[in-house]
Input
Amino acid sequence: MSSLAGTPLTAVPFTAVKFTDRFWAPRLEINRTVTLPCNFKACEETGRIGNFEVAAGLKPGEFQGIYFNDSDVYKVIEGAAYTLALRPDSKLDATLDGLIAKIAAAQQPDGYLNTYFTLVEPDKRWTDLPVKHELYCAGHLFEAAVAHYQATGKRNLLDVAIRLADHIDGVFGDDRLVGVPGHEEIELALVKLAEATAEERYFKLAQWFIDRRGQSDREYCQDHIPVRDQTEVVGHAVRAMYLYCGVADVARRTADEALRAMLDRVWRDLTRRKLYVTGGLGPSAHNEGFTSAYDLPNETAYAETCAAIGLALWSHRLALLYGRREYADMLEQVLYNGLLSGVSLSGDRFFYINPLASRGEQHRRPWFDCACCPTNVVRFLPQVGGMMYATSPASEATGQAEACPGLWVNLYAASEAAVKLEGVDVGLIQETDYPGFGAIRLIVNPSRAATFDLHLRIPAWCEGAMAKVNDESVDPTPDATGYLRLRREWRKGDTIRLNLPMTPQRIAANPNVTADVGRVALRRGPLVYCLEAADHGGSVRDLALPRDALLEARMETGLLGGVVVLRARGLRRAPTDWAETLYRPVGADAPASLTAVPYLAWDNRGPGEMVVWIPETPALAELRPAPSGASEGKANS
Amino acid sequence: MSSLAGTPLTAVPFTAVKFTDRFWAPRLEINRTVTLPCNFKACEETGRIGNFEVAAGLKPGEFQGIYFNDSDVYKVIEGAAYTLALRPDSKLDATLDGLIAKIAAAQQPDGYLNTYFTLVEPDKRWTDLPVKHELYCAGHLFEAAVAHYQATGKRNLLDVAIRLADHIDGVFGDDRLVGVPGHEEIELALVKLAEATAEERYFKLAQWFIDRRGQSDREYCQDHIPVRDQTEVVGHAVRAMYLYCGVADVARRTADEALRAMLDRVWRDLTRRKLYVTGGLGPSAHNEGFTSAYDLPNETAYAETCAAIGLALWSHRLALLYGRREYADMLEQVLYNGLLSGVSLSGDRFFYINPLASRGEQHRRPWFDCACCPTNVVRFLPQVGGMMYATSPASEATGQAEACPGLWVNLYAASEAAVKLEGVDVGLIQETDYPGFGAIRLIVNPSRAATFDLHLRIPAWCEGAMAKVNDESVDPTPDATGYLRLRREWRKGDTIRLNLPMTPQRIAANPNVTADVGRVALRRGPLVYCLEAADHGGSVRDLALPRDALLEARMETGLLGGVVVLRARGLRRAPTDWAETLYRPVGADAPASLTAVPYLAWDNRGPGEMVVWIPETPALAELRPAPSGASEGKANS
Output
């Protein structure tokens, strides 16, 4: 899966995109007004912020919590900074400055910063890289610092990050300490810091951490073989995703074909063999990660929210690196399903684990001792706007075609954007009810008439796309990249109408996925659906969907914030009591009305069973009196 | 599930039953002529017999193999003794005497006998009861000795057993060594020895070993709580079965209601929640045993052959203890499926593990380093005749009805039997092609006219049983025991015709068994069926059975020794290449002819895939052009 375009695409920053829709705009507002404050509050109440004050000598006390708790504070700051970037807020600005002052005060004179080690094991710095998360915490500090600097222009946190980065750069090296983090994160963060500061040393250090992996036998943290030799996604899922992000960041900026080849191999392994239909990943609680090919149990799926976020970040990087639909499709798949399932509609409760079937025992919780997921949600969501568009230079971005600048549309949502494309300011307005419906109006407003390629992603899930430019039909067939390329001299007000029919689909899994054999998942547009107890009298595990049942899509504005549900005439299998029976002859099924809701919205109506993969049954028409079906060739005499 | 009859039934010994059928008679002959010699040969070649010679000082050498290898030799002797009992064989008799001489020579002056400890850890006797299997090996010696004594009347092995039993009785006790075996077996064996020798001390010792369990935390060997408090089948499956056999043996001879209550609880837990449809049990390789309720994966099913044998032995004991159909039904279920699958039709290859689905990688092998299964098969099969009939005294055996002696028919097979029933010799002739067909003629030949109850098991799987006595129809409805009770003055030549229709059935599993959801198993009479690669062009994992497909039963005399196959018009799902696809919209299926063969006979035609649980699909009639099935309530505009 090598690149068609030699030059990677460049993302249009999230600050240039404003959602005006009913899907993302409310979610970002809830993230700002609910999720962010409750994350701050939890960090305060659990001593995560206090750890900095104690380490700084600002107050007495002991280290509280887990040794990687600093990272949670950094991630909340990162999320707050993005929020500030989207919407000025002097109170939040001041809050951040106060918090940053505590962090800066906790930094040691030599630049070292980690409250756990400073307070608990001051003599043990950098001695347990595989387990303790010093480099991981540092990475999250760097990401927060870059976000804060870019949002506010202030260097107060950036300077802390630089001091720590310089310290790390002084500690690690081939002639100094050789070692790699047990939990990757610093690699991608160093690349960000390098770009924000134009300091090449940080990029080199990121490369070094990637190049030095593979000297141990720790498959759990992708340290079992050198990165360039890795062929399968293994170990802890979040760590794997963060590593691949860092590798993609390095590959993007170098001619390192071996890194790209490795990314292609692990991408293929993940997406062809080890991924839930929700985009969830890492099936096992045992290692919070990957197991063997096709081992995708539903009820015990781990599918950590952070892993989904990691996959979204990685998919976006590859979408930019390669300019191919597959990666943006993946981004969409995980975003609208296994990632958003991680946070409640109310914004104050979180899933750490995202199963694809439940007996009703899993529920989102306000916080976790290991709080990586809530703090990842709060920093991820404001970035989504930055994943919608990208640009490519005139040089060679479109492969075969004549050189021409490109504007790429990866995601669809009602929004307004301001894109800079080789000297032209291009305003973009999307009018759509996506992901509820697939009709999209895209209005292009260049500051002056300009010729460029508009690349519209035609999702692989879509059959029968239609496109018009200024009411003239155009061939909707995508090119080899999977994008529909429209080249013309664009003028203010030019309007593209794109229709991506969202016919409800039954999805089957590869027969090697034993958990899903005989079952189908329902998908409509980018959304994967599930059956919830709330719509089915309390139980869904015995419901089944006949192959011939019509799937009717209907917008329910009052349900779960407004969702399109799928309705079908289904069956409730063997509705009698099985309690004392393990096996028995197949019985007649009872009719049942099925209502499927988007998976991302499950568990927002109280406890109850849930299934994504629904057993398929005989066609309804066949269930007349009682199951026929037995004859004997040679009778018993 | 308490007893209706106060007095347990008494089994008619296997020596009183002679198979004349095409199912058991050839199997017993192959067991005698193939399985027994190859077991002896393997025991010789692997040093198992040599260990006794070395321990006896008869030849130089070291202990070979695993510390419980003595037990294999004892089990083969037990099997050989049963064979001798069924058919005199002076050469085999002499072989056994020679082998017994070696065993006797290896016995230590104080009665101790275990070649591993004598040769390897002479100072460590009885110091590692949870792991090392001294008491387990002793139990198998006792069983072999009783079998040999009863078959030949010779005391050469019995005296060895008595000396060891007396030694153990002297070592263990509340004021001596308190401990219990990690692997149960000695309990049931001591009861056998007690009966054969009329020595009450051995029975007391069996009781003591049961009463002393529960002082550790070892759930693996059912030692985690006192036996009478146990409620679930846990741990190693073979150990559990052997324990329950011993408990049943003690419960049968005492008024210990707490033991019966415990048996009832674990029986219920096993048969309602933790049993494969084949009668296989113990799903996990991890502990060779039980996991959680409804955790019954097919491909990774452990379902050890020895566990199936253990369940058959336990079921038979409960069938005698309670006189209820449920237990004999269970005996039949495990016997004809998950037990016999453990040995090839040729008699010289064995399964240790009996999965319910295979990718073609499992095959029977001639022997195992841990050879418990082959040696268990060889000693179990000759006993089957002893499970067919039982008698009950006139006292109270039939519960509500007036006192009358009872003759119980538990299993059906063409055979001749000589039963002693309260002073009357009753000859019984069964004429039938069972389990091929369900028509049975039972001719009763009492030595004089005699009134007794004939109890005929009407299997729970059977619908529409019919019965005639001397061509007069009788009501086939079973009484509360599940047996059809026929009381009359029986005269020589009285003939019962019983028809147990073997309509092929689709079996569903409790929906909690996630591995089987959307799937059916096929059963006809007592036989569970499977699909094998050999009948389906090499692959069966993508085959499916429409709910409306007729199941046609047909005797194939040339196939697998003569079996009834089930044929149906089925489907091959999504026959295109999935290799690079994990999920995709449901596709159209292709027609396929399905041929199911009895599970017990699988893997007798070379390597290949196999499934017991077959995915169910829509009715064939529905698969006309392409799957319809999608409409959109509110169109995309």
Observations:
- Residues 1-5, 622-637 of chain A have pLDDT under 50 and may be disordered.
- Chain A touches chain B through 75 residues (CB under 8 Å).
- Chain A has four domains: 46-212, 233-352, 389-396+403-499, 510-636.
